[in-house]
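#lab-general

N.A. 3:47 PM
ok so I finally got the sequence cleaned up, no stray characters, all 380 residues accounted for. can someone with queue access submit it? mine expired

B.Y. 3:52 PM
send it over

N.A. 3:53 PM
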Amino acid sequence: MIDEPMNEQLQAEISASVQEEQSKELQEISELSKHGYQYLKENRVEEAEECFSRILEKDRENNYALVGLGDAARKRGAFRDAVEHYRKCLTHHPGNNYALFGLADCYKALNQYQKAIEIWEQYLIHDDHNITVLTRVADAYRKVRDFKKSKVIYLKVLEMEENNAYALIGLGHLHYDFKEYKDALFFWGKILELHGDNVDIRVLTSMGNCHRKMKTFAEGIPLFERALKIDPDNFYALFGLADCYRGLGMQYRSLEYWNRILEKDPHNKVILTRAGDAYRNMGEYDNANDYYTKALNIEYDVYAVLGLATIAKLQEKYLDAVASLSKLLQNDQRNYRLYLEIADCYIRANEKEKALETLVQFQQFGIRNPAISEMIERLK
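B.Y. 4:20 PM
back already:
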C-alpha cells in the first residue's frame, strides 16, 4: 500500500508531466499557427493548409486554424469552402472579428451582398470606426442599389478621414451608377487633385466616361489622352477617345483609335462595326462594307447589318437594302421602324405593291401605329 506522502508526490509528478505535455502542445500549436500565416503571406497556400489542419488534429475548435483555413480557401477562390471554415469558427468563437471579416468578404465575392452587409454590421457592433469595414459596407449597399445608405456611410468615412481614397472613389461610382455624372466628376476630381500624376488610370477613364455620358466630348478627350500616357494600349482610353471624336463628328480621328484597338484585338465585332460606321459617315463605302462584313463573319451583329443596309440605300441599291433589313426582321419582328425602312426602299425601287404588303404585314400583329397607318394611306 502506498503511503500518503508517496501518493501526493506521485500526483504532483503526474500533474507536472501533464502540464509539460500541454505546454509542449501549446507551443507546437503556436509554431504551426505562426508558420501557417507566414505561408499565407507568401501565397504558399497548400503548406499553410497543412499547418492549420495539423493544429485541428490537436484542437478541433482552434480559432486561429479555422480562420487560417478560411483565409487559405479564400486565396484559392474557393469561397464556399471558406464560408464553412469561418462559420465553424463563429460557432465556437462568436464575434471573432477575423472570421466575421473573412465571411463577409466571401459573401461579397459570391455576389451575396445582403448577407455581406449583415455580417459587416455585426463586425461594426464591436468596432464602428473601422474605416476598411465601413467602406466595404458602403460598397455593398451601392451594389444592391441602396443609394441613400451607401452615401451616408461613405460620407461618415470622409468625416473620419477627409481624403479617404476608397470613399471618394466609391462616391464617384455611386453617383455614376445613378446617372449623376456631375457629382461623380466632383468626387473623382478630388482624387485627381490629391494624386496628380500618380492618379490611378481608372479614375481618368471614369471621368472621361462621365463626359461621354454628358456629351461634353471635348472635355473628355484630355482625360483619355492622359490615361494613354500611362498605358498606351489601354482599351478604355482608346475606346473613350474614339467615341469622343465620333461624338464631335470627327470621324477620321475616331478611326485612328478604333483601328488601334483592332491592331490588338482584330476580332472585336463591336469595334469593327464602329469603324465601319466611321467609314460610312466619311463616304468610304467600300471600306465600311469590308468592316461590317468582317464583323458579320465573326458573329451576327444587328448594327453591322443595319450599316450594310444604310450603305446599300445610299448607293441606291434599294433591293440589297431590303435584303439586309429583312434579316433584322427575323430577330425583331415587331419593330415598326424596320417595316417603314423596307417599305421606303420598295417605294424608291418603284415597287409600291411590295411596300404596301410589308406595311400590312406589320398590322397583322394587331399593333396600331400612326406612322405605319399614314404610309399605307399615302400608298393607297
